[in-house]
Every structure is written in C-alpha cells, then in structure tokens.
Amino acid sequence: MAHSTNGTNSNAGSAGNAGTAGRAGTAGTNAAHYDEKDIQVLEGLEAVRKRPGMYIGSTGPRGLHHLIYEVVDNSIDEAMAGFADRIDVTIHEDNSVTVLDNGRGIPVGKHPKMKIPTLEVVLTILHAGGKFGGEGYKVSGGLHGVGISVVNALSSRLEVEVMRDGGIWAMAFSQGKVIQKISQTGKTKKTGTKTTFWADPEVFETTVYDHDTIASRLREMAFLNKNVKIIFTDERMPSEDAEAPGPLVEVYQYAGGIVDFVKYVNEGKNVLAGLSKPIYFTATQEAVGEIEFAMQWNDTHYETTLAFANNIHTTEGGTHLEGFKNGITRVLNDYARSHSMLKEKEDNMAGEDVRSGLACIISVKLREPQFEGQTKTKLGNTEIRALAQSAVMQGLAEYMEEHPNPAREIVKKALEEKRVREAVRKYKDTQRKQKETSLPGKLADCSLRDPELTELYIVEGDSAGGSAKQARERSFQAILPLRGKILNIERANLHRSLSSETINTLITALGTGIGDDFAAEKARYHKVIIMTDADVDGAHIRTLLLTFFFRFMPGMIEHGYIYIAQPPLYRLAVGRKHTYIYSDETLKKEIAQLPPVSKYTIQRYKGLGEMDPEQLWETTMEPSHRTLLQVMMDDALLADKVVSDLMGDQVEPRKEFIQRHAKDVRFLDI
Ligand code: 0RA
User: Is the CB of 102 under 6 A from ligand 1?
Assistant: First the structure.
C-alpha cells in the first residue's frame, strides 16, 4: 500500500471501532443533561452525528473510507441476493463519491408503517438498511450493518436516484435531513440505485480518499463475489491508457472468484509443481450458510491465509479458521500415513508444518454472522467450526486422492518442514546445553578476547585453511576453514539451514546468534573476513556466505563487520624483485612499463592453496599490506528489500540483490 495516513489497506473495512472511545466520552458528558424528549432525538440520525465513531469507527481517514464501503456493501448485498451484477464506483474531482448498481432499486412507495416513502425510511432511519423490506436478504455484509442512513447523516449532501417500475425517482439530503422531497424525474426501463455523497468536512478530519485503499477493497469485493463486476473510476487521476484519455478507470471482475484471489496472492511466487491450478472446494449447509476454500502452496516458508465472513476480512480469525486448521492438519497427516510417507514411529506433522508456504482464501457466507473480538472481526458462530472442518476433510482429501502428484509435493514439503522444525528444536536444546562453552573443533581461535581487536578468517578449503593457520598472527587472527561448499541458503529456510554442520560451526564461532536472537554485542570478532579462491567457485562460496549473513545476521553487515579478502591473482618476478598483482588490468600496465628487454616470470594463482604461508601472510593477511573490501548495505534497503528479495522465494530478485550489493562493496585500505 502506498499510503500512510490511515495505516491500513483493504482491511480498513474491518478495522472496527478504533475511534469510538474518545467520541463516546464527549457525547457521554452531554447525555447527562438529556431528558426523554432528547433521547428520542438521539435515536435518529442526530445520534450518528454526535457519535460518528460508534457507527463508522472513527472520523479519521479510516472512518472516511468506511463511508464508501458502507454504500458499496449495500449494493453487494443486492448482488449476493442475486439481483445485481454490476457496481460502478466513482470518486469525483471534489472527493464526492457515486455508487451505482443495477439491482432492483430501493423501493419508493409509501412505507406501510412509517407513512413516508420507503426510500426516505432507508436513508433516514438507523438500521433500516439492507435487511429492511420484509423478505429481506439471505445474507448481508457490512461490518456494522448500520446501513446507508449513517452515510447520509455524515454527508454534507447526499443525492439518491432510484430506477424502478419504469421510472426514475430522486431525493436529496443534507446532514441526514431531507432537502428535496421524492419526485419522479424521468422514465427508464432500467433498474438500480445511484447514490452520490459528499463526506461532511464538519465531521471528518479529511475528506480526501486514498485511491489505492479504495482500489484494494473493491478488488477484494470482486474476488469474493464472482458474479459482480466492479468498475472503479477515479476522476482525480488521469487514465493510464494514452489511447483513451480521461479519468483513471479500473475494472474488477473475476470469473474465478477466490480461485483468482489466491492466484493473485501468489503472484510472483513459485507454486508447487502440479498446483498451477489452485485447489478449490465448497460446502453448504442450508440452515447455516456456505463456505468456500481456495488454496495453493508456494515454495516459501510462510503462510498467507485470508479468512472472510460475509465479505468481511476476519483478521481476528474465528470458528471458520479453527475448523479449517483442524481439518487440513488431519488430512495431510492421514494422507502421509496411508501413503507411507510418514513412518509409524514418527510424530504427526504439526499445523505449522502443513501450512508452511500455503496461500489460502476462506470465504463463508452465513445467514446470521456473529462477530466478536476487539475489532468485531472474529467470527463466533460455533456451527461453522464443524462445517469448515468437514468441508476440508472431504474436499481436500478428495482432491489429494484424485491428484497424486501435487498431493505428494504438498506432503513432501510439509514433511521437510517437520524435520527441519525438529532439527531446530534439537539445535536449540544443544545450544542451551553447550551455553557457548565449546567452540567448534575446526576453529583455530586467537588468544586475544577483545572483539575490537580480533579477526576471523573464513577460509575456503582445508589446505588453504592450513596455510592460513601457519601464516596468521595468532594473537588476534582466528581461522575457520570451510570444507567444500556451504549449504545453499538461497533456497533453504532458517530451520533447514540450521541442520547443516557448516552453518552451525559458523554460528557458534561468531557468537552472535541468528535471526531474532542476533546480538551484535556478542560478536566474537569485529572483522569477519571471507577469504576464497579468486575463481568462479570461490566467488560462488563468497556469494553463499554473503547470503548467509544477509539472511541470518544482517546486523553483522550493518555494523560493518564483514569483509572480503583480496588475494593476488599474479606474482610478477623481474630479476630478484617481485610484486603481487590483483587484477588483469594492473598486470598489463606493469608489463608495459618494463624496460624492453626485461626477463620476467608471471605466476598465476588459481587458488589460495598455491601460495605458501609466507606469501599468504604478505599478500592477504598482514594488516599493513592487505586490501580488504568492506561489505556495506544501505539501511533503507535492508529494511525494505532484504526481506522480500533475499528472504523471498524467487531466485531472480535475490541474484539481482546480490549483484546490486556487490557494487556497494567499497575499497578500504588498512
Ligand atoms: C430494500 C428492499 C429492497 C431492495 C433494497 C432495499 C435495495 C437497497 C439498496 C441499496 C443499494 N442498492 C440497493 N438495492 C436495493 C427490495 C425491493 C423489492 O422487493 O423489489
């Protein structure tokens, strides 16, 4: 989301009563002086203007955006009832908003009880919104269910036009009061309702809508209601299509419904083999409602499950989510056992194992939703737990039996997560037992203990490690030889990486801990120097090590503790003198500068192992002669991009990242 003012995205619609407390306080003081007559007044729209927070959450940007959601929700209700399939939402240049649907139109005839036009009842009486009208709707969205009258109360002006029974009827209001009585203004064969409102600047801190927030919510609505086409026009913004000048128009229509939603969530991620088509199933229980699931695993290690009840994003979860979690854990364990993928002696996979890498949309539409929790975004209906669970146990199990290939991929991934989780638990146990007492055997530590003075050389290969151990100044230089390549952290998760011995050795030697446990002040060395061969393999190992630091110990880079050693590429000997050369360019220059008949020999170092300890010391380890590259990282980039690019799942952004940062490496002569 590009905006910051309301600090939320499409979930703003379910954001609840954030601003209620303050508002209620003010009104409460006044309430002390009310007599019976006043209380009656308070039951009308005046109450809404006195305590807007109670009805729309707040008078800040969040509450403002709620106005649009409330009006759109009414049209969505009409669509859910099967009478509308198109909703046009337009934000005009002056931040007024028009919502037009092609439903039946709000009834305009005299209301039998109230003796005024039903249209007026709907717009001026609290709670006379969607459910009003005898038969009513089967299901109804709208977080507060307060209806369009609340929007009317909080608008400096509201115009409504109803197309019904061959005619067009219009009314206008100001701050909830009729300023233009109902009248027929024309004829039409169409049906529908059109509402235009101007949020009251006397009520709202701001009356400017955020395009992305509205777009995101409308898109979500279209995903959740596949029969609805939502056309969003923002007249404040220019068209993105040069061929069609005019305002910005975006169309949201998803024939695939939540299947399209889950694909959208997984955009830019690698989905598991055979799962390019998401898993979809549904269950209905006449007296309760309908529940739909769309799920698709990707190769990341985090879960994105979005649960909705009557189009409301239930961010606090609830019974639908509980039933789902129980169901999916059972189905995957049953499958793993019956297909001998999980051995008899092995423990079951945990919920977090089976849901790792899962993107899932749950949408339940029920007749009488009960919303609970702090922000009224937790579904409370107990009957939904069983419905959700049995839906998953049938739907998912059936899918897996019919699609053995993706089924195996899903279970394989979950099993991997389980094993890794268990390895981590073991690792943490041993860590606790060891309590940094024993350092890895391969580490040739230095004798000084002051991290400001000490250095750790991470050296590729045992033979170079041997030379480095002989060459070093043991008081302040420690050597850690790495055997072969280290695990490719690019693709493994934190848990899995910890089962690698090399990684463990590294972590123990450095002393800082990793991830959330990282503590820079525990670093045992303030210079950690990566020393690899000057060839492709060396470059690869260096990349893997840098990736390791980027991912698990970014703080080491932030503190400037990570360096890259620069071993020479050549040794140029002329007569009795010799020089070490660090690049092809310099070599050419040096040779060109030699007197014409000079005799010289060039030795090319393919690896560190070709240097004897003295040479290694002289060229690469001795502080007054060596050149170290300090690895630097931009702070903003760290916060923003490391997580998505490096922690992410696609290889390209990661490669780009490392390539980008390779350039940020700067020379440092010590
Ligand atoms: C009450 C009763 C009927 C429809 C509506 C309200 C209605 C409200 C809104 C709000 C926005 N768009 C709407 N469309 C319809 C049922 C009328 C009938 O039985 O024909």
Answer: no
Residues 69 and 198 grouped into a single domain: yes
Domain match, 145 and 209 both: yes
Same domain flag for 193 and 264:
no
Residue 140 CB less than 6 A away from ligand 1:
no
- Is residue 615 one of the residues assigned to a domain? no
Give one DSSP letter per residue of 36-66, joined into a string: HHHHHHHHTHHHHHH-HHHHHS-SSHHHHHH
Q: Domain residues for 43?
A: 8-252
Whole-structure pTM value: 0.63
Residues 380 and 468 in one domain: no
Residue-wise pLDDT for 121-172, tens only, equals 999 988 643 443 333 333 444 444 568 999 999 999 999 999 999 999 999 9
Residue type at 592? A
Residues 353 and 476 both lie in one domain: no
The domain that contains 112 carries what CATH number?
A: 3.30.565.10
Query: From the CA of 170, how far away is ligand 1's center (Å)?
Result: 15
Active-site residues, by number, are: 460, 533, 535, 537
User: How far apart are alpha carbons 393 and 224 in whole angstroms?
Assistant: 23
Interior/surface letters 285-310, b for 16+ CB within 10 angstroms, e for the rest: eeebbbbbbbbbbbbbbeebbbbbbb
Is 149 near ligand 1, meaning CB less than 6 Å away?
no
